[in-house]
Amino acid sequence: MHEMFEKQAALSPESVAVVEDDGRSMTYKDLNDACDVLADYLVLCGVKRDSPVGIYMERCLEYVISYIAILKAGGSFSFNHCDFSNNAFFIVCSEENRSHELS
């Protein structure tokens, strides 16, 4: 899936890739760049092929970035619904049990 996204980002980098309800949007280039940064960080945190990574946030731009970045890092995606009033974007990497969560 992320390979198809990267192909589209290369074909039309300045096209709008995602728009949030509040009007925030990102182009394919900006979205791809943000995903690459997070994917690199996830790899540094120990995410590797099929590592489970949970996403604990409402659906938003950061959710899209997280989902694609997890796939780019080789991890497997696990969505866990939550009811955050604030879509804060934090990364938790625990070396002890190698669990990875984005919230």
Structure description:
This protein is α/β, with parallel strands linked by helices. The protein has a single domain (2-102), classed as Rossmann fold (3-Layer(aba) Sandwich). Helices cover 38% and strands 20% of the residues. It is built from 3 helices and 6 strands, in the order H-E-E-H-E-H-E-E-E. It has helices at residues 2-11, 28-44, 61-72; strands spanning 16-19, 25-27, 52-55, 76-79, 91-93, 100-102. A 4-stranded mixed sheet has the order 4-3-6-5, with helices on one face. Helix 2 (28-44) crosses helix 3 (61-72). It is globular and about 35 Å long.
Explain briefly what this protein structure is.
Helix content is 38%, strand content 20%.
List the keywords:
Rossmann fold; single chain; 3 helices; 38% helix; four-stranded mixed beta sheet; two-stranded antiparallel ribbon
At CATH level 2, the architecture is 3-Layer(aba) Sandwich
Strand arrangement, major sheet:
4-3-6-5
Bulk shape: globular
**How many strands, which pairing sense, and closed or not: the largest β-sheet?**
4 strands, mixed
List the helices and strands and how they pair.
Elements (H helix, E strand, L loop, with lengths): L1 H10 L4 E4 L5 E3 H17 L7 E4 L5 H12 L3 E4 L11 E3 L6 E3 L1
Parallel strand pairs: 3-4, 3-6
Antiparallel strand pairs: 1-2, 5-6
